[in-house]
Amino acid sequence: MTEPVDVVLIGGGIMSATLGTLLKELQPDWRIVVFERLHDVALESSNAWNNAGTGHAALCELNYMPEGKDGSLDPAKAIAINEQFQQSRQFWSSLVEQGVLDAPSTFINSAPHMTFVRGEKDVAYLKRRYEVLKKEPLFAGIEYSEDSRVINQWAPLLMQKRRKGEPFAATRVPAGTDVDFGALTRQLFDNLRERGVEVVTNREVRSIRRLADGQWKLKWRNSVGRTPGEITSRFVFVGAGGWALKLLQSSGIPEISGYGVFPIGGQFLKTTDPALVAQHKAKVYSQASVGAPPMSVPHLDTRVVDGEASLLFGPFATFSPKFLKRGSIFDIVTQVRWGNLWPMLKVAIDNPSLITYLVGELLKDHGKKVDSLRTFMPTAKDEDWELIQAGQRAQVMKKDPDKGGILQFGTEVVTSADGSIAGLLGASPGASTAVSIMLGLLQRCFPDRMDEWKPRLGELIPSYGESLNPRPDAAEESLSGTAETLALTA
């Protein structure tokens, strides 16, 4: 390839697939090339078994609505996450109607979202959270109960042989979803190929360098045969999971200075026992362990992958120096620069509880992991559950003017000053809010084109540019409309 292309997307995951689809809808004449280092797309974080498949809408995840020091509960972040997920639902709904995506059941299914807590303190917190959220239009239908008979109807496995006298409570939102992001990613890339996008697998980008004219030269090599090559592009998006940091560092943009990542792997207990699967139709979240990062909040989940239902419980944190499941053992070392050394050291100094948590997780054998499951499901038996390895997550560490360095939870887009290169760091709620994240990226990187693109974006995402929650009728219309198109029935 000698002629410059318009866009290069690095990484074959849901982020690149979403951005590529948006750009092809908005600017069909642009030449777009996608590079994936593995033999197929959706094999790292977007793969169905490398994540929990939760359609993150803050319906059940307590970390999106923490209790303030004064005991107050602010729903702003939970509402914002829900707004972002509604944009994803609207976008997917539009693509289903266009025939871009296959039957909805191939990538999204109903799974009520529940929160289950024990102990007087957490019960009191959950009740106050419910009282706040039930007033918000995007959380319409949320239910609360401390009655074992009601919770047993919602999720029988939670209540069988539950200890008498133990305080517990649950909330439930029937409109929750389970998403197979691997299937969704593959379908989006299949459509991009049909529309002329070059999706090249087994090709690893090794470096990114800015040319004198402002364009970017990317050097790559084939994973098979190691044949090298290069390509020039006007715009580059780095959606390469944990490796995004390394590639952005190679680009030399000052905006990446001060960033580092800490890799955290995950494992899940999984069962396909029909008798157990039939008794649990929900995603049930609880409080995180002390010191645990938000992505490690325990949950017992319904999963539907390739049409087969199963249950997952976890995650259990693991450690590997690799930034990707198929990364390099030197990743954690080769990221170090003068600009991020102190922020990363400061994070380690300030977060001993995270280290304690990780050590405790690593010491758990299969039996201990099933013991953790029994806090959700008292009747769990060791032999009914197998341990599966999930994906690697890159926990962002960044420079902070006050503390020196902080852990940055969630996802973060890093963009050059001129908007010609951008990359995504971080993890949850990532995939669920990919559409919102990419809309923000378009605004930052192509501000001069947004007026031209706005009408088409409004067709694809009816709520684009507006908030749903302050408009109850619009919120209800969005929820019911996408539920109908995506065939979501509780």
UniProtKB/TrEMBL annotation:
Organism from which the protein derives: Microbacterium awajiense
Family affiliation: Belongs to the MQO family.
Designated name of the protein: Probable malate:quinone oxidoreductase
InterPro entries with a match to the protein in the record: FAD/NAD-bd_sf, MQO
Key words, A-Z: FAD, Flavoprotein, Oxidoreductase, Tricarboxylic acid cycle
SUPFAM superfamilies to which the protein is assigned, alphabetical: FAD/NAD(P)-binding domain (SSF51905)
E.C. no: 1.1.5.4
The protein's required cofactors: FAD
Originating gene: mqo
